Amino acid sequence: MTSAASARFLIVGPQGSGKGTQGVLVAEAFGVPQVATGDIFRENVKGGTELGTKVQEIIEAGHLVPDELTSELVRDRLEQPDAERGFLLDGYPRNRGQVEHLDAFLDGRGEALDAVIELEVPRDESIARLRHRATDQGRTDDTEDVIANRLAIYERETAPILDVYRERDLVLRIDGVGTLDEVTERIFAALADRGLVPNGDASAGAA
Fold it and tell me: 5, CA 20 to 30 Å: which among 19, 83, 115, 130?
């Protein structure tokens, strides 16, 4: 089987698919960092880095962070020592332009993604989960219209990147409906089918 020394993953799914939670479990099992763009933005802003200052100025002006700056922040994170033997990307790349940036970065290092985990969740299920989460967290700004708009952006901009990765035979399609443990087990089973297992028993990460 492929050594866990090569564990470069991307997890993709609509809001409410549980990709953040599943991403943590996969990353921990393989001993690689989960790299989420939201966390990178917050850490750089809080740390007062040069890139963080740029991000803060853009966000405060009410604009979206440009692809090139987002990619620069991700590249900076992936160059840190803990990502040397692998990583799990969550929330990046979000569009085809960012796919090209990631390709160029990995090509320059002689690396490539090992698998792209696609969590498939029906739209109505995603909306129901997000509404439930908004209620639990008291987020009154997360109205059904706002949630539907976020899903529309995902469907329009992010879902198409999966076509790129399907052409490379990297996509593992995972049914995202079920209990947390059931979905986790499906992910590890699909990775194992590709010869990608953590150190030790792959099922350990599903506990």
Answer: 19
Token pair listed for 128: 């129901």
* Residue-wise pLDDT tens digits, 89-131: 999 999 999 999 999 999 999 999 999 999 999 999 999 999 9
Could you give the CA distance from residue 117 to residue 76 in angstroms, rounded to a whole number?
Answer: 23
Q: Tokens 């470069």 identify what position?
A: 8
Average pLDDT score over the chain = 91
Encode burial over 86-112: b for 16+ CB neighbours within 10 A, e otherwise: bbbbbbbbbbebbbebbeebeeeeeee
d(CA 197, CA 11): 16
Strands lying side by side in the sheet with 171-175: 34-36, 86-90, 7-12, 115-120, 171-175
**Core vs surface per residue 114-141: b (16+ CB within 10 A) or e:** bbbbbbebeeeebbebbbeebeeeeeee
Q: Which residue has the tokens 């028993």?
A: 201
Residue 65 token pair: 């962070």
Q: How far apart are CA 26 and CA 44, in angstroms?
A: 24
On the question of pLDDT at 205 being above 70, the answer is no
- In whole angstroms, give the CA distance from residue 201 to residue 196: 11
| Helix ranges, the chain (H) | 19-30, 37-47, 50-60, 67-78, 96-108, 123-137, 144-153, 161-167, 180-193
Query: Whole-model pTM above 0.70?
Result: yes
